[in-house]
Prior knowledge:
By secondary structure, the protein is mostly helical. 64% of the residues lie in helices and 0% in strands. The protein has one domain (6-119): Globins (Globin-like), CATH 1.10.490. It has six helices and no strands. Helix 1 packs antiparallel against helix 2, helix 1 crosses helix 5 (81-97) and helix 5 (81-97) runs antiparallel to helix 6 (102-119). GO terms for molecular function: heme binding; metal ion binding; oxygen binding; oxygen carrier activity. Keywords: Heme, Iron, Metal-binding, Transport.
Amino acid sequence: QTPILPYDEIGAEKLSELVDAFYSNVAQHPKLKPIFPDDLTETARKQKQFLTQYLGGPNLYTEEHGHPMMKMRHNAFPITPERKDAWLACMSDAMDKTGLEGKFRHDLYRRLVLTANHMVNQQSHEE
Length: 127
Ligand code: HEM
């Protein structure tokens, strides 16, 4: 039996839907909105590239932007535990809206929790 990559399991189209649903949540979230650009088109495009390779698909992010170094790229933004929880809530809701379920959803979410925890770079923020 050929092992299936998470990327093949979700497919490019569903992944794109997930990312669009996610950033539409981010754009409306009071704790996240202030640290993101107003226009999330480019952010969503990069996130699609990143998640493609995160899930075992082609290295689209690295081909265009170099090594992800996600922790370092996030240092420019104040990421508190509160904002990390908000990010994950936006992702969980986006997973609901795109109909991800079962083991696939559970495993992806669990991985994202670990990655999100890693991005926290300060303990509190104003507002
Ligand atoms: C970029 C916030 C977690 C992947 C960004 C940006 C912000 C941000 C403000 C900049 C957007 C822009 O200028 O276009 C956060 C917060 C997180 C979080 C508050 C909470 C923990 C994550 C996680 C991942 C991720 C868990 C990956 C699974 C990315 C990617 C970019 C990005 C791929 C684009 C990087 C680039 O400019 O090349 N994030 N992020 N982020 N984030 Fe996050």
